[in-house]
Each structure stands twice: as C-alpha cells, then as structure tokens.
Write a structure and sequence with these properties.
heterotrimer; A alpha/beta (about 240); B alpha/beta (about 150); C alpha/beta (about 325); A: about 240 residues; alpha/beta; Rossmann fold; 2 domains; four-stranded parallel beta sheet; 8 helices; 9 strands; about 20% strand; B: about 150 residues; 4 helices
C-alpha cells in the first residue's frame, strides 16, 4: 500500500490560511491503513484547523469528508458537487488522489495535506516499511522477495557493500542491511548459488527515470481514450 | 516559549472540566465518592465510557473546540484494565493528543490521564480537585469566548 | 599487459606492491595535491586519489589524478557509483585515459546521508545516482578496455587501457558470503583488489584460504589494507565503529602501554603512541606479505602522507622497484 504521513499542522496552516471555506478530504484505502488520511483523520485534522483558525482570529469554516479511494473517478464522482462548493479541498489522500481530484474539481484547488512517502507493508500495527521501488522491472525472484532497489540504500544488485555493520546498514543502524536479509533468505530457500551470478546494469527506463508511465489494459479500456486531464466531463 | 498567548485570569474563574471516566474503575470510584459525600469542584462533568480505550481523539478535540477549559481521562490502574490494555492504549492516545494541542496553541497541560481503582473514592475527589486547580492556574481556555458550533 | 601501468608492472614482476592514499583538498588550488604527491613519490608504486570520500565535495579524483600524474607519481583514480550515471562514468573514463591515467578503483561510495562523518555539513539532501553498482562498473571498464565497446554497445575508437581495481571487506557481514562477493568482482574483471584495513591477520588468513579455494587468487592481485594506527583510542574506535574492521585486543593493549609510559605528558603520549603505531604498521605489512595470495599492501595513513616514506623504509621496501 501507499504509505504517507500528514504534514505538520504549521505547514498546512501556511498553505490554507487565506482560504475561507475549506473541506479536509480523506481516503479510506491505503492512507487510512497507515492512520494518516482516512475519514477519521480528516475529522481530526478539520477540528484542529478550526481550533487554529479560532486562535488566529481567522474567519474560516473547515469541514471534513472522505471517499473510498481518491484515485478512482467512480469513487470521487459522488463527492464532486460538495467539493466544488468549497474554495479549497485539502486532500489527505496520497499524491495520486490529489492529482486525480485536481483534474475534476474545476476551479477549486486541491492542496496536499499529506506527504506521500513510499510503497510499503505493515511490519506491525503502526509500523510501516518501504519495500518496493516501483521500478517496472521486478527481480524479486532472484533476491528471495527482498527488494534491493529500495531496501538497499545504494540500490546494489550485486551486494553487499563494505559498509554493513552487524547486519545493519551503515547509514542507519536501525535499518537492516538488505543484502544480509537477501543472503539469509536465499540460504533458507536453498538458492544461495543464484547470488553468485553477476546481475548486469539495470534498465532504469522502465521505471520513473524513463519518463511518466501509463498502463492501458486493452481488453478493458474504452475505444476512446479517457485519460486523466481530459477536458471531457464524465457522464455518470 | 509559552504555548498559549498570555491572557488574564479572571478572579472568580470557575474552570469547566470534562472527565472521561471508565465504567469499571473511575466511574465506580466517582460513585463511591458520592456515596461517601466527599466534596469536589462542581465544574467537573463526567462522561462514562465502557473503557478508556474507547477514547477517540475527536472527543477531546470537540470538547476544546466548544470552549472547555480542561479534559482529563480516568481509567483503571495500569495492569488492571477490565479489558486488558484499553487504558494503555488510552495513555498513548492522550500523549499524542497533547502534541496536537500544542501545535494549535492549546497548553497540553489542559489534558491529563489518571489511573485509579473502583475502591478509591477519595482519590477521585482528589483528582478532580487537583486537576481543577491546575486549570484554574492556567486560566480559561483561549477558545472559551470564541467557541463556535462544531 | 592490460594497461602498462607501473602498478601492473610491479605486481607482474612478483615483487610486493605498495599503494598509498592521497586525499584531494576542498579547494580549487592544485598546491595541496602537488605537495602531497611530492611526499609520496618514490615511496609507493601508485597512490589512490579518493573520490569525494564520506560524500564531501573535494577536488574530483580525475582532476587530482591528472595533477598527480604530472608530478611523476602514478595515480589510481577512484570512481564511486554514488555521483555519476553510466554515461558520465564512461565519459570520465575516456577523459582520464586521455590524460594518462592508467589505474581505476571502482567503489560503491559512502552514502551522502551518512557522509561527512558528522563533522562537516556535506550534502545530505543530494539526489544520489547508484545507476550501476561496483561489480557492474568493473564489468563496464573491462568491456571498454578489452572489447572497445561502451556498456550500451556503441564502439570506442581508442579503448581506454585501465588496470581495474575493486575493494574488498573480508570481515564484513555476512562474513561467509564475502569470498563469493570477491569472486564476483574478479569474475567481472577486477585485476587488483585493495582490502579494508586488516589488523587480525589470522582471520584474514582464513578468508584468503577460502578465496583460494574459489580459484580467485591466481586471477587477481590482493593488496592487504593497512591502516596506520595513531593512538589506542583510534584503534578502539576502528574496532567498535568501522564496519568490517576488527582489532585484536593485544594491539590496543600495546598502544595503551605506550601511552602510559608518558605518565600524563600529553605531547609525549601522542608521540609514543604514534611511534608504536609505525612499529605495528611495519609488523602488519610483513605479516600480510607472508600470506599466500597477498601481492602487496595498501597503506592508509589518514592525513599522514608524510608517514609513507618512513613506513616504506622501515619495512625494508625502499627503494621501490623500477620496472
């Protein structure tokens, strides 16, 4: 899931203080799981911002709302009228949500109340770790399911480097050395010899470095391209 | 640097306090205090919860938004929660809410967590008195006269 | 002959090779480089020119290497994977070869977040590259040199002739994987290997034995890393905090004993420990050279380029061979 963290209130306040009618809008998928941007968090943030507005003597109304997923038009559709009735939408969905909402809210700007951090998994309740680099060229079958692109600080494909310190990464003693984890796992799977082969330089063009990406599922996509940012209004 | 903007404390200021008390211990202790005819400040209004673990950030925030001067949460003694860990979760939540209050200019001392057993009627009265006095010294909430309906 | 470099020729001759380090300055002036090159010339066969060590901006390794070369001291250019993508790397390698540089050490590079070792500001917010890793970089150099081809396949008119080096941390975690990690570097094309500083020679011997069993030692030249100790505190720090470095207790005890002989005189304590440090260094050099497969030593004297002359002489390795 996508993991994010709410921006500090002081930063959010600076962004929104000149607006009059604000709605804090959450998303109940990924960011709700990491307790950062769900409907509950939207209510809490709205309350805090109302308190802040009272303190600053700023005349402002702050409401809250949420939808199932901000990254899908079908889910935001029903909220658009309400959103557009405000002069600012403070989205606490991930960046994908902010981008999509912005394409549909017309003259109402959408600001990010959340910093989108990474693709992650739940280590234990309240603890999330980055585990996937979204590189578009997955080699997890060669590394026992442990991603060297993001879990190794140097993205080594032929690790480890010389900086491993008691099984931890040299840049953060709390962080496991991904290559120690990979070697252990491959031993467990009885596949250690696979790590003796040299991995050639990666084709990064299949990831972000190759420019903005898109995926079209041919047997699903409509004949006419309905891409985000299209000026066509969706018919409900 | 003080969290709140300095403001004068009126002489006859009577703090308004909400106490979120758990049914099994704190509320029972409050009952006992009543039976024992113990006196404590009348500004403390009690809201009973099945367990302090039910405490939601919004209960506290809405209370402050509406102008309350102080909030305390009272649960079972640690290790003796009727629901095992409810009071421990509540303690963590209270700690977090304090950091949020500070960020919006409300003194985190206006929020507290206490632990006591059902047998501690006198302790209940003591907590109410102690906390009310703390709030009296802090003065009225900065939002007291600015409250608007949430 | 792969590169014709002095280092290559000394190694091929079978005589023990000595490499040292020259740290470029945080400066646009060549003076410091020239001064250090003069200190090292004649007392080592080639000198590593570090590449933004600890992720701190210093004069680039290529530029400092070119200046060193002009002073008659053979440089070993260093290239980290942190700051350059494969395009910049190959371009820089072509340029370096054109400037007369013949040795290149491929290393991953200290991560910029960890950088400056807490003493300087550095650039922790910089976007690092790590387009390729060390082993892939070794492969790139080999392909350029032996096939005259760029990594992407385009041809190179005059291939750069480098003597290709890589580093090895024999005691890093997980220790039992390190010989295989070394094998990958050698398979990729590493002609010479400089190890992380070794103090525990017995442990080093066992790792070298494993390397021999993998058939590596006759395909590459291992230069044992020797870090010149300056004080008991430094040894304790290296043992506790530097990954892959273990220091036997008795060496720390020796340094402490030297310190105590000064009976509180700080100046004298410093001097006595430094003297003991040189003695230990010379012993370590001899012990390392006795290990089968070790073809030389790489001496690291942090900000101590001036010590190399003395160490080389006291180790009985002066004058350096001219081949």
């Amino acid at each position: 899931m996508i993991v994010g963290k709410q921006k500090p209130i002081s930063e959010i306040w600076d962004m929104i203080k000149d607006f009059k009618k604000i709605i804090v809008f959450g998303c109940n998928t990924c960011v709700a799981v990491c307790h950062a941007g769900g409907s509950k968090e939207a209510e809490i943030l709205a309350s805090l911002l109302r308190i802040k507005a009272l303190q600053e003597g700023v005349d402002m109304t702050v409401e809250s709302g949420a939808c199932e997923r901000q990254c899908e038009p079908e889910f935001i559709q029903q909220h658009l009228e309400a959103l557009k009735a405000h002069d600012l939408v403070l989205s606490i969905g991930c960046g994908a949500g902010v981008n999509l909402l912005s394409a549909y809210t017309g003259n109402t700007p959408v600001f990010p109340g959340l910093n989108t951090e990474f693709y992650g998994a739940v280590q234990q309740a309240g603890h999330f770790i980055e585990v996937c680099g979204g590189c578009g060229n997955c080699i997890l079958h060669l590394t026992g399911g442990i991603c060297p692109i993001v879990r190794c600080s140097k993205s080594l494909l032929n690790g480890p480097c010389g900086g491993t310190n008691n099984g931890k990464c040299e840049i953060n003693s709390e962080q496991d050395c991904a290559w120690c984890l990979i070697i252990e796992r491959m031993k467990q799977l009885d596949k250690l010899e696979q790590l003796f082969a040299i991995q050639p330089p990666k084709d990064w063009s299949r990831g972000t470095y190759g420019g903005p990406r898109e995926v079209i599922v041919e047997h699903i996509a409509a004949d006419e391209k309905n891409s985000v940012g299209s000026t066509k209004e969706r018919k409900s | 640097m003080a969290v709140e903007k300095p403001h004068a404390v009126p002489e006859n200021f009577k703090p308004d306090v909400i106490a979120f008390a758990c049914h099994y211990c704190a509320f029972a202790a409050a009952d006992l205090a009543g039976i024992m005819r113990l006196t404590y400040p009348t500004g403390v209004k009690i809201i009973r919860m099945p367990c302090t673990g039910k405490l939601d950030h919004l209960y506290v925030l809405r209370a402050f938004e509406n102008g309350i001067d102080g909030v305390f949460v009272a649960g079972c003694l640690e290790g003796q929660c009727h629901f095992r860990e409810g009071n421990l979760n509540a303690a963590k939540r209270v700690k977090h809410i304090k950091t949020l209050l500070e960020q919006v200019g409300i003194d985190p001392e206006r929020l507290a967590m206490y632990n006591l057993s059902a047998a501690q009627g006198p302790r209940w009265a003591e907590i109410c008195t102690e906390f009310t006095e703390r709030i009296r010294k802090l003065g009225p909430s900065p939002l007291r006269n600015k409250r608007q309906k949430a | 002959m792969k590169s014709g470099s002095n280092l290559e020729r000394v190694i091929r001759s079978g005589k023990p090779a000595i490499t040292a380090e020259l740290g470029p300055p945080m400066s646009a002036s060549p003076d410091d480089v020239i001064r250090k090159a003069k200190m090292l010339k004649g007392f080592c066969d080639a000198a590593n020119i570090t590449d933004c060590q600890t992720a701190v901006v210093r004069m680039s390794s290529i530029a400092a290497a070119a200046i060193t070369h002009s002073q008659g001291l053979e440089p070993i250019m260093q290239m980290t994977c942190r700051d350059r993508n494969r395009i910049a790397m190959q371009a820089d390698l072509l340029g370096a070869a054109a400037l007369g540089i013949r040795n290149c050490l491929c290393i991953a590079g200290d991560h910029q977040k960890f950088g400056a070792a807490g003493k300087l500001k550095g650039h922790p917010g910089a976007k690092n590259v790590y387009d390729v890793d060390t082993i892939q970089l070794v492969g790139i150099l080999k392909k350029m040199r032996d096939e005259g081809l760029q990594q992407g396949g385009d041809t190179i008119d005059a291939p750069p002739k480098f003597f290709i080096g890589a580093s090895w941390t024999p005691f890093g975690d997980p220790m039992d994987f390190r010989p295989y990690n070394l094998k990958k570097k050698v398979d990729a094309g590493a002609d010479f290997i400089q190890t992380q500083g070794v103090y525990d020679m017995d442990l080093f011997k066992t790792q070298m034995e494993k390397a021999r069993n993998l058939g590596i030692l006759d395909r590459t030249a291992i230069l044992a890393g020797i870090i010149v100790p300056k004080s008991a505190a430094m040894l304790a720090y290296l043992d506790a905090s530097v990954p892959g470095v273990t220091v036997p207790r008795q060496l720390i005890d020796r340094m402490n004993k030297a310190k105590e002989t000064a009976s509180g005189d700080k100046q004298k304590a410093k001097q006595l420990q430094e003297e003991e440090g040189i003695r230990i260094t010379v012993e370590l050099i001899h012990q390392a050279l006795e290990i089968p497969g070790v073809k030389g030593v790489h001496i690291q004297a942090i900000e101590g380029e001036a010590l190399i002359e003395r160490i080389t002489k006291e180790a009985g390795l002066y004058p350096r061979p001219e081949i």
